[in-house]
C-alpha cells in the first residue's frame, strides 16, 4: 500500500502551515507522534538516547533497520524517515544507494535522511534519480563532530555563505526538505526565504518552515545534557524515577503485589452465572 503522506506532499508544504517533526524509535512512541506530527524521524540520535553511545558515530545499519521497522509499524498518517548512519553513505553514491535502498526495503519507510551539503550533492542526486527521496541535513551535522570540534553553532560570520551554499546545493540535487541544525537565526531565515523546499529547524530560530526535536529530549527522558534549543514539555524521566522508587519500596515492604494482583487456585464462579 502507498503511504498517505509521501515526500512530494512534504515538499508542497513550503510556506504553508509549519511542518511538525519529532523523532521516534519505538512503536508505542511512533503511535503518539503519528497522531500529532507530519513526520516521524527515526534519528540516529537513537544511539545516544536509547543505546547509551557517546555520539552517533557508533550507530549501525542494523540498529536503524530494527528501530525503523518498529516506527513504521506505529505510523498510519505521519511519514517515517530513516537516518542513514555514519559510514553507510559517504564513500560513494553507489554505497549510499545500496544502503538507502536496504533501509527503505527492510523498514517500509518512503524516505531517508543524510548529513552534508555541497560534498553530498552528487550522492543526493544519484539517490533521488533512483527512487530514494532524501531529506538533507546541514549546519551542525553531528556525525562530523570530530571534524567540527564539538556541537557548536555552525554558520556565523564567514561560515554563513558556506551553509547557504550547502542548503542551495542539496535543494538543487533534489532533496525534498532540509534540516537546519544549530544555525544562527538570521541565516536560517535567509536560507528559508531563498529555498523552494521546506526548511526544518532545530536550534535554527523562529522562521523555518518546520521544527524537529528529539522526542526523548522534549519529554525529559534523556537528561545527560540539554542544548539551549530543547524545550521540555514533560518530565517523564523524573516521573519514571519516582514510579520506580515507589515500586522498589513496595516490593521491599511487601505491599506489592497485593491480593488483587494474584490468581486464585480455584476458578471463581462468575457473578450471576447459572451453577
Ligand atoms: O538524529 C536525529 O534525531 C536528528 C534530528 C535532531 C534532526 O538528526
Ligand atoms: Na541524525
TrEMBL record:
Binds 1 Mg(2+) ion per subunit. The active site is at residue 181. Its cofactor is Mg(2+). One of its GO terms (cellular component) is cytoplasm. It comes from the Bacteria. GO terms for biological process: methylation; pantothenate biosynthetic process. It is an enzyme of class 2 (transferase). It is found in: Cytoplasm. One of its GO terms (molecular function) is methyltransferase activity. Residues 257-275 are annotated as: Disordered. 3-methyl-2-oxobutanoate binds at residues 44-45, 83, 113. Keywords: Cytoplasm, Magnesium, Metal-binding, Methyltransferase, Pantothenate biosynthesis, Transferase. Catalyzes the reversible reaction in which hydroxymethyl group from 5,10-methylenetetrahydrofolate is transferred onto alpha-ketoisovalerate to form ketopantoate. Belongs to the PanB family. This is 3-methyl-2-oxobutanoate hydroxymethyltransferase. It comes from Fuscovulum blasticum DSM 2131. The gene is panB.
